[in-house]
Design a protein that fits this description.
- The structure is a single chain.
- The chain is mostly helical.
- The chain has seven helices and no strands.
- The N and C termini lie far apart (40 Å).
Length: 132
Amino acid sequence: MTQIIEKYYRMLARISSSLQSPFLLAVRLYWGWQFMQTGWGKLTDIGKVVNFFTSLGIPAPALNAYFIASLEFGGGLLLILGLGSRLIALPLAIDMLVAYIAADREALLSIISNPDKFTGAAPYTFLIPTPF
């Protein structure tokens, strides 16, 4: 009986191992597309982003708006192309952490008391699957 279980376990391990690369490719393409779309939306309506950053009290709002929009668009493009994925993942993760701190502080502080609020915030969907 243990030999049969071991045989099926090895088969399952071999199948799942062969599916790992396509799965990671799909994740990288999806999140690259999401970041690229978000960055493009910010680049095409940069005035709105500058006003939002100003309302949050972010220093040099115009400079930071262009930086973040370019980071998200360019980082998403790099993820899609598979170029420097691990290198660009760190700045994108920092971008999402800062978004939590600056724009969704209440959601960030409710991580223990109200996890649904934390996971429902916009930065969560971008931060958690960042492909390091």
